[in-house]
Amino acid sequence: MITLDHLDVRLLNLLSRNARAGIAELALRTSVARNTVAARLRRLENAGVLDGFAPRVNLEPLGVTVRAFLALKLEQGHLDSVVAGLADIPEVLEVHATTGSADLLVQAATRTHEGLQELIQRVVSIRGVAHSNTTLALTTPLKFRVQPLIDTLVD
């Protein structure tokens, strides 16, 4: 476990707003030496806190407007093979192993409702999937975020 201080939190905040910010810009915005910023970023990367610098892609302008969550119940002993089958489906965005009535929660996106139906058919045909329950996402009033939580972790 890594302990964060105010500089770490400030750097993570700046990067969450602009993942393309360079060390010079981060140093300027935090009033800290470039070497200090570089060392902090290296520390955060080595600790696994920074897990890459990927752009946030909005799928809607690409015509991918249908979002759904599939709760999957699995047959015993099939977790790895089901996850491997899900990984082969491009429309599957994310998979979480869960507790409760479902074993996996799958986030998926398609262009159309017909595409979602085809996706569901493909998912339930994976060997080891016993049952599925699909929930459509109508809107996303609060997008994925981590900064408010990170702000509470300052030592």
Features:
6 helices; Tscrpt_reg_AsnC-like; 155 residues; Arc Repressor Mutant, subunit A
Structure description:
The protein is an alpha+beta fold and 155 residues long. The protein folds into two domains: 6-54, Arc Repressor Mutant, subunit A (Orthogonal Bundle); 60-137, Alpha-Beta Plaits (2-Layer Sandwich). The protein has helices at 6-17, 23-30, 34-46, 79-87, 113-124, 147-152, and strands at residues 66-74, 92-97, 104-110, 129-137. Strands 2-3-1-4 form a four-stranded antiparallel β-sheet. The two termini are 13 Å apart.
Write the layout of secondary structure elements.
Blueprint: H1 6-17, H2 23-30, H3 34-46, E1 66-74, H4 79-87, E2 92-97, E3 104-110, H5 113-124, E4 129-137, H6 147-152
Antiparallel strand pairs: 1-3, 1-4, 2-3
Helix pairs in contact: 2-3
DSSP strand (E) fraction? 15-25%
* CATH-assigned fold name of the largest domain: Alpha-Beta Plaits
Count of DSSP strands? 4
Number of domains: 2
Classify the secondary structure makeup into a structural class.
alpha+beta
Helix count equals 6
Distance between the termini: 13 Å
CATH superfamily of the largest domain: Lrp/AsnC effector binding domain/regulation of amino acid metabolism (RAM) domain
